Amino acid sequence: MERGQGTNAKDALKTAASSVAGSSVHEDARARLVRLHDGQGKRAACEEARRRYLTTYPSGVHVAAVKAACAPR
Fold first, then answer.
1. Rg of the chain over CA atoms, in angstroms?
2. What SS3 string covers the chain?
3. Of 5, 16, 32, 50, which is least packed with CB atoms within 10 Å of its CB?
4. Does residue 13 contact residue 19 with C-beta atoms inside 8 Å?
5. Residue 20 and residue 26 in contact, taking contact as beta carbons nearer than 8 Å
6. Cα 22 to the chain's mean position, in Å?
């Protein structure tokens, strides 16, 4: 994702985010999907990813960053 490979990152993150909640990668993958969509300016996708993260991890380690994402530009 950091190397500008958004499509590859998106596919990998979607796979990780579809794993069982609470798995070692699930929470991070959900938060990274929010960042990816936010960085690409895809507001609807960002808001949906944010909703999914916050529903699953209301007290997660990425809550502050996730809540701050998806703002209009």
1. 11
2. CCCCCHHHHHHHHHHHHCCCCCCCCHHHHHHHHHHHHHHCCCHHHHHHHHHHHHHHCCCCCCHHHHHHCCCCC
3. 5
4. no
5. yes
6. 15
Q: What is the pLDDT of residue 72?
A: 83
Among the listed residues 10, 55, 62, the one whose alpha carbon sits nearest the alpha carbon of residue 31: 62
Q: Is the CB of residue 56 less than 8 Å from the CB of residue 39?
A: no
| Amino acid letter for position 38 | D
How much is the pTM?
0.76
Distance CA 63, CA 68 (A): 9
The half-sphere exposure of 14 on its side-chain side, counting CA atoms within 13 A, is 9
